Amino acid sequence: MKPESIGRVLGIGLRVAGRVAGQHIANTSASSAAPQTEPHNIGARAQAAGHTTRTVGRGISGFLKPFRTVGGKIWLEVVGAFFFLPVLAFSPVLWRTRASWQQGPDHRTFLSAAVIIVIFLYLGVSSFWRAGRRR
What we know:
The mean pLDDT is 82. 86% of the residues lie in helices and 0% in strands. Helix 1 (3-33) runs antiparallel to helix 2 and helix 2 (39-96) packs antiparallel against helix 3 (107-133). It has one domain. By secondary structure, it is an all-alpha fold.
């Protein structure tokens, strides 16, 4: 995500959260000035509280969206780096047993190392690929 768009999203999120907080404060002061003895007033206040809660939730969600996106990218990159560790660990084994690739005393070791390297290489590359495609 571009720095300009992150700043724009954060600014919009802060404006929405400020507007919601202002409305909530205005509703609270207006409801405290009204008499509390009417039974139908409780239902209206509960409905207003539910609306305010949903609005605040949407504002907070909009504010946290860029952090969630960046956190997801970083997570995929860290996981991809850890997937490359078995590739690095088993590459010398593959190289050492390369003479036994078809038949020989280390045939199973060679095939096991090759399978592990291929699987973890795929997982590491695909993790970095997905991190690059996220917006």
